[in-house]
Records
---
Amino acid sequence: MNQKPDRIIIFDTTLRDGEQSPGATLNVDEKLLIAKQLARLGVDIIEAGFAVASPGDFEAVNRIAQTVGTEDGPTICSLARAVKKDIQTAASALKPAAKPRIHTFIATSDIHLQYKLKKTRSEVLAIAEEMVAYAKSFVDDIEFSPEDAGRSDPEFLYQVLERAIAAGATTVNIPDTVGYTTPAEFGAIIKGIKDNVPNIDKAIISVHGHNDLGLAVANFLEAVKNGARQLECTINGIGERAGNAALEELVMALHVRRQYYNPFLGRPTDSEAPLTNIDTQQIYKTSRLVSNLTGMLVQPNKAIVGANAFAHESGIHQDGVLKNKLTYEIMDAQLIGLNNNQIVLGKLSGRHAFGARLKELGIELSEGDLNKAFVRFKEVADKKKEISDWDLEAIVNDEIQQAPDLFRVELVQVSCGSNACPTATVTLRTPEGQELTDAAIGTGPVDAVYKAINRVVNVPNQLIEFSVQSVTAGIDAIGEVTIRLKYGDRIFSGHSANTDIIVASAQAYINALNRLYAALKKQEEAGKAEGNTSAAASV
């Protein structure tokens, strides 16, 4: 295998490492939706999950492999510990994929060996070699990661990598698992591997890094200069703790500064050829989808996809941009799929025109989802004179990522003011079809609505996050509400968009409560099944 391809391979782990962000749990349908968009984005490899982790993860990997892992689609990957059961399960989940990859790993730092694995270096060497070879018996494309490579002894790291490649690893991934290294150090690790692993030319060097010190993207770019050719990243940089290297930042850095990076990939400095296969115009849309489905908002000053990334308030900046965008913008907002186009659709527009515009935006819906989204579109069109593409995306995202339809908001009515006591009345339809009404007072209208809902649903929870964002400018803008609830050690998110913020707040809260309620019911049913099994066994 050529160790130095003239482009950078993008390995997206949003659905695996990204989903490990607290509160970012996705169901199978949501994962499939994101996987389809990642394919449109043009990522080379989708790490669809950790198949052995749960039946839900297995199903997600399997369905993504079947639906997205086509001949002309991306490689579909499943993570697996260096354990036979993990590898068997990953291989089984990946069977439908045209291009399957098993990604197996074992820790190599002394601190992990001593306290987590309780194994010697020689034992880890043997396990790595044996399990890579075992994985190779199922699929040809094997990735091996020495976990916590950033804190591993270099000489031992070289030995592990050499044995893994000899056993059949086609990609060796170097993880900065705890986000500890600096760019110079990380670059030196990659260079050391290239110089000291005898068979490194038979594998692609990949990198994976966390952002604990805010250096993940910088570390990766330094790794590219030293020979890394695969970057493992997530949309919006989501992931455990402070997150992962952000895909959009890496891709746009390589795009905007391609003349700087060209020589490191063996290209002429003045080459305009893209350094990745990413369709940059899908970046913003993908960012929005992941943000909405995970309930993790993008900070306004986030590079590339933040609300302020292309905004200019300073008079000097505004004057310069009006004269020539290049004075203060190093890339065009349209390059990532941002535009200010207004669609020529209104309350008299038909379903066909609505569906056609969605297709133009790259949004593909089933017949059922299209019908639901069209009903919402009509509701919004009655309230707004002009509907932007951003409004359309908000409407669609709100419809396609609804929580289980258990409790449903039928009525929300509030009374508040400067000298009034905020009061809310809500009517909910229960899972059994009953309509229940209750009222409550609160510190504000939203607090009153949530207290009234709690009186009806009666599921204890702790509201830990409430945020509102405007989709577009103007007094009639659609507002998006995202909330997160905590129950025990689990977090459930809810999201809704509406021109009425109070209604959106109620719907977002119900979405989260429905997820919590469904999880409790599932847990209760599992407990009953286990009890029945035990009773049968004792007979």
---
Amino acid sequence: MRAIRRFTVRTVLPVELAALGELVQNLRWSWHPETMDLFAEVDPETWQRVGHDPVALLGAVEADRLAELARDRRFLRKLADAADDLREYMTAPRWYQTLPGAPAAIGYFSPEYGIAAALPQYSGGLGILAGDHLKAASDLGVPILGVGLLYRHGYFSQSLSAEGWQQEHYPSLDPGGLPLSLLKEEDGTPSRVAIPLPEGRALHAQIWIAQAGRVPLLLLDSDVAENDNAARDVTDRLYGGGTDHRLMQELLLGIGGVRALRAYCRVTGHPEPEVFHTNEGHAGFLGLERIRELTEHRLSFDEALEAVRAGTVFTTHTPVPAGIDRFPAEMIAKQFGGDNAWPTVPVERILALGAEPDAPEGGAPIFNMAVMGMRLAQRVNGVSELHGAVSREMFQGLWPGFDLDDIPIGSITNGVHAPTWVAREVMELAGKELPSLIEVAQGWEGVQKLSDEDIWGIRGRLRRMLVEAARERLRASWRARGASTAELGWIDEALSPDVLTFGFARRVPSYKRLTLMLKDPDRLKQLLLDPDRPVQIVIAGKAHPADEGGKKLIQQIVKFADREDVRHRIVFLPDYDMALGQLMVQGCDVWMNNPLRPLEACGTSGMKAALNGGLNLSIRDGWWDEWYDGDNGWAIPTADGVEDPDRRDDLEAGALYDLIEREVADRFYDRAGNAHPRRWLDMVKHTLSSLGPKVLAGRMLHDYVVALYTPAAESARELSASEYTKAREFAAWKLRVTRAWPGVRVEHIEASGIGDTPELGVSMEVHATVALGELAPDDVSVEAAYGKVGVHDQLVEPSYITLTAESVGDDGKAAYTGVVPLDRTGAFGYTVRVVPAHPLMSSPAELGLIAVPEEPAGMTSGTLR
């Protein structure tokens, strides 16, 4: 018979081993090798059998063994040292504690988190990035409170059919068997949050806590008795179900997440967050919940909106509209209207927040979660410089009339958490020779002093570890596909620890082009089987369960890798997870990435490989576009402008083959006698010294704290002071300016002082007449834009100077003047624009209002000599 419910019975530890429970419950062990060593000593054989999962270890180890350890003075000393180290890590001041004015706490919301393989609550890059964000915050002492959902089936486990088709499995996860604790009230009852639903229903959730070092991660779980069956299933699986299901998950993450934070801070005494960070649009409803809180404390909707925006950061991760959650507006209206309406938050205002600015006329209204997230946040960023530029173009419609460079979407390039992803051998070498590398991100130039022998020796060991693990996984996969043991002798010789090894592991949407390497199968075969300079490729990746196209791509790569003539040189390893990802980024010599540019927002796997002494072979997209320098890897040329996708793939695949054959393999195998490949190792050292300090998650967190969190906290404090006086004033000012803006016009522009033949170094006086209507000069900024002129007389990356109001007439017309330097030769132009101005604005484009000359003649251009 099949059990209708499963749960985990945890062992009762002897008093002498109580500290072992503390170590297991804090996920810091997942990036702390010394603690992992201690767990291994508990029972080495069981530790291997449970896949290095300490919770499972304590559930499987025999009581006699625990009693033995409780009498082992050597083990008890090591346990005491590990416990003391954790307590010191949790309490000692760190970098963040030296900062003046930084926020007391930051709420960080994400639909998924990749903390450790033992807590499978992630699907891909978004979750891995969120996990690294929390770990780096812990290491730096940044007081983040993470918020997410607890999925009872995680994402999915992947296997292959005999035909190479992806198959999904959803194992049940028991919270009692995970490193979690339940948030409880003083009376011992579980804390609960509830969200009213239409038709008198409600969505209830309890709150689990995963302690990631110093950072608590709150995970909401709807599998509680108070819910009906549909509500209990809201947190069944990550990215599962239809539109209704996704909406329920996002309501729980955003609205329920804020309520969970309030409960946690009330129960524990933790400071309330001053800043709320929305990691993608999935949690966007958190802004509505905060508006509801404030409007119930006598602020108007507009006043609450300003207070909420000031303290909100929104990070977008997608470069394509298809990656954004969008719901029919009628679904949102049903949720927030009728008998389920919030009395102080009109449903019409909610719908307006998510309305797409460029929606086609006559179509069904759509509610866009990313658009709402941006309207609810005063600070918005992409995750690489190129992605920031792509996002400005993608969302330009939210700020009509502004040039792309004026769109207030910045960028902070992602980073990776080195202690999680860098091999222990590399960390120990760095700790011995260059102890300040990871902790303070200094001294990376010292990498050049490392010996070729040390680096090459570590790279060889890591490659061998990958090969051995790949063989084990390959054998298990073939058995699951129906092969007998007698058929699998070839796996003992699959891959080689001495062959140049490429890694390719991604999610499998079409734009990542998993099968680009198969564009010319014969050419690929030649590279794999080259008698003198062979290459081998280790591949992994999951397609979304509903993505039939992605599954077909996996099947194509599997069918090629199944061929008897090449299967010892190219393998597909199913069930890509954090553990496999660690093996691959540590063991591969080259990390390959060939997305369709510019559709990769950032991509961080190549960063992990670089920190392990690997090199990148990638399309110049995401982070590689900004940090490739010509000597730290290879850039695959892109066929930009070629509209035929097959033709573009042909060209870029050909360039990929050429690079592998003529440059990558040539450098790897360029050895004099039995010497190490000096040119290859020179490139490895340059990669480590040039990329090392940039790709660390600590650098990323530093950027978030300095550029976004601290300014957001300062803005939020200013607007909330004195019973939200500034929020009230700012909202009233915005309303007045918006209503009066149709009366603002640039009526006349003229220049003087440059003569008939403008020359470099001359200063030009600009005079403008601006009709201000009902506004005062202090309400606006009148600016001269000037610089190089491009196609159709468009200014290219213009510079700006603020013009001075010389006089204001009774008719509301003001005269402005300023001096423009003619600081470059060639085609030169200028114009004048008017934008709102207020000390509390974070960008001139914040209101989306701009006035420019109506006639093309308003811009004068010419050629400077």
---
Amino acid sequence: MKLLSNSILLISVILLTFYVGKANAYSGFSLQQLVQQDTSKKDTTKIKVKNNSDLDKKIEYKATDSVRFSKDKSIIYMYGNARVIYGDFELDADYIRYDQKNNIIYASGKTDPKTKRYVGRPIFKSGTEGSAVADSLYYNSATTRAKVYGVYSEQEGGFFSGGQSKKQVDNELHIKNMMYSTCNLPHPHFGLMISKGIATEKQIITGPVYMQIEDVPTPFALPFAFFPKTNKRTSGIILPTPGEDASRGFFLQNAGYYLGLNDYWDAKLMGTIYTNGSYEATLSSNYIKRYKFNGNINLNYANTKNGIQGQENIGKNFRIGWSHSQNPNASPGSTFTASVNVSSSTYYQATAANTTYDQRAIATNTSTSSIAYSKVLAGGLFNFSTALSAQQTFSTRQIYLQLPQFNLNMSTISPFDSKNRSGEQKWYQKITVGYSLQGNNTISTADSVLFKPEGLRRLQTGFSHSIPIGMNFTLLKYLTFSMGGTYNEVWNFQSINKRFTTFTDGTYTSRIDTLSGFKRGGSYNLSTSMSTKVYGKTREFKNLGNIQQLRHVMTPSVSFSYSPDFTDPSKGIFKEAIDQNGKFIINPSTGRPVTYSSLEGMAYPGSFSTEQASIGFILDNTTELKVRSPKDTTGTGFRKIPIIQGLSFSGSYNLLAPSKKLTPISFSGRSQFTDKLGINYNGTLNPYVLRDSTNNGAFVQNVEIDRYFWQDGKYFPRLTNFGFSFDYGFNAAAVKKKNENYDALKGQVEKQGMTPLQSEQLNAINRDPNAFVDFNIPWNFAFQYRFDYTNNLGVSTITNTLNFNGDFNLTPKWKFTFNSGYDFKNQGLTPMNIAIYRDLHCWDMSVNWIPYGAYKSYSVTIKVKSSILQDLKLSKRQGFYNTYQ
């Protein structure tokens, strides 16, 4: 183990030395893209000179100050915003000298006597290449050779500056002492110094190359380098990040190889090794077919050893991720999507959320995956969709699979109406019919036996049919009526049989046997409903400032539904409970035999209830204020402020129920007071009172009896549960900016396909509102709060959750962010994540710190902003993986 540790340390030093090699592997050189300056403010001279060396080309030149000639007229001197055009060569400078005999053009700037700064540098362009800036240059108009000093040019996010370059006849470029950097300043903060090299159309060959930071040479160097200049993906080695972990030891992280397979598909294989024996492997691939589809695949495997030597917690974990999206225009009428996230139950904890230390990801208890396809059939009459889905519960290690589920829905039609009908519909032409078919294959079992015979035997298969029939009409202009019914039928290929055993004390137990075979059951119901709207409006307020009026809208709805008794054993679905002696088990409360459904727990158990005749009611309320707008100068502008949005009460009364005919009344609503503050609330009101009682001679406290609260002289029903939640952001501009960043990144992903970096950014944004660090937003603070109250037979429980996050600029270049919460039960803060960012112009520095908790850790990263040199970074990380054990 010590040998492995020393080996990794030695390799780390070597890799740091050769970092510069990879950083420049994607760079290329050409005189590229700068904004062309207009130097022709005053055109004092504009002369065309015929060049004897090339009769087809003419020299055009001008200057705003003066133009002078030598005695023999062979040399032209141009001063002040001079400009020369020769074929496809364009040159602007403060001073230009043209030697017609030798076909030499020389250009330079000048030193401003007041500021002592060098100004008026030559700006030149040749052919299809972009513009470039230089300190001075020589150009041979006959041979097109050029020699440039102190060049500054840009290409694909990289900048070349300083040194000398010489252009040959064959467009081969010789360079010397030139700096390459992603810093866009003429004097960059850092760069790769190329002592000498040759650049052609397809490659760059250099001599010694070393890194230079703030004009200070560093020992990170290469004796020579070869860089291909291909305008396509190129395979290459991915250098690792060396570091140390408090639990796993020294490590080399994310070393691997990148495969640029083609323009539509790539792959990346990476691995991480630790000196204590842990290792991780990752295979990721991105694919895209423009205007068709895009997606990515990620496979992760981790063999972890956390803890001190001799007491390690060894585990093997995996994760499979797949994301696929189809362009809506690729195949109109059909869609195909995939979002797969399958992992072992301890993957996120053992790997610290893939070394992101994201507390939300680490605390995730469930994972869902789905693969879905849909298609419109028969000109839009039918809609077919199918999906494979999985849901994992990490704490119980249970997994629920649907393999697959499908739906076939028919659009609602009016079978008795005519397409060529004229005039109003007759009553029978208002009848509508629909149809839907569902199929499902499900498995619910422990993940350890999923692919074993005992797990596969839990497969449940079934179909469900539904045929709704309805008719809508309006009565007395204000009352909307609807009536109809629904027939439901389920088909299952498994059913159950229960074996009961009774005991001398009157109790009993049961065992369930699953039987294979086709089993069907049908049910139906009839219903009718009526709804309307009632508008209430107050008179105008005169003494309440800008408040003008209060408006209240109520939407009452009453319905009646009837369904016969489908629990009768004679109908073949329900069975009577018979014990080991062949006797019926009697329910003491009803005096009738106990029954159970043979489709209980199946893919489609159906809805088979006793005879019901229920009256349902819903009352929806909306209240808003009419307020004069202070921004309106005419005095006639108003705006509406919603006070209550959708406060609804609902319940039902079963006329045929033997007891407790009235169900508990539930309510829910929301209020949006401002753009920043909105509240959601919900609860349940129980109309029945509690009384102390006895059961077989034993005293029982707080038993719910069939007696309404008003019968005991009470004014309000019991509040059995209540909850409300709200979130508030103090800086609306911050929320808006982050949403814009998210939408922009999401749009880029949809158009071009998702890279691993973009995928991680989207995931981070969904988990953490501070994922985007924007120095233009000086501060932000937001919090989310939820309160829940439950009262179960007199025993009340209260839970509170509070989460908060924010950021602020310490200076225009320093940003401080934090994310935490408060645990009211344990009366303490939840794990906090603190981050400090420093904008170093062309570099970024970030410090991430989790000061306490199971994943106490910190990391320091300094990296180049540009994606070209995104692997040029210095990192320091320390983690405490073993503290959660």
